[in-house]
Amino acid sequence: MVEITAINHANRLAVTNDGRLGEVTNLFDRDGDDTDDTEAAVAAVVKLADDEWLTVDLATFETARLN
After folding, report:
1. How many CB atoms lie under 10 A from the CB of residue 52?
2. Which of 3, 6, 7, 32 pairs with 19 at a CA distance of 20 to 30 A?
3. Which of 15, 16, 14, 5 lies closest to 26, judged by CA?
4. pTM of the complete model
5. According to the model, what pLDDT value does residue 61 have?
6. What is d(CA 50, CA 29) in angstroms, rounded to the nearest whole number?
7. SS3 annotation, the chain
């Protein structure tokens, strides 16, 4: 089963457990409204291929800062 293992909010990219990159196409806030505010987002939709989309619970990820 394909799972998202990391998300880069700044570049709107997601990485899967099998090494693929996907585009974060939508972010949703806690009210279910579409948002571009990454701080308010609690869920995301990731497009992996033309016929493959995943939803992501962003609460399952920890913030990691890169230098």
Report:
1. 12
2. 32
3. 14
4. 0.88
5. 87
6. 25
7. CCCEEEEECCCCEEEECCCCEEEEEEEECCCCCEECCCCCCCEEEEEEECCEEEEEEHHHCCCCCCC
Residue 59: C-alpha distances to residues 27, 38, 50 (Å): 13, 12, 26
Position 65: which residue type? R
Tens digit of pLDDT for each residue in 2-42?
A: 999 999 988 999 999 999 999 999 999 999 999 999 999 99
CB 3 within 8 A of CB 20: no
What Cα–Cα distance (Å) separates residue 32 from each residue in 15, 17, 40, 50, 61? 23, 26, 11, 24, 19
pLDDT surpassing 80 at residue 66: no
Each domain of the chain, given as residue ranges in start order, spans 4-60
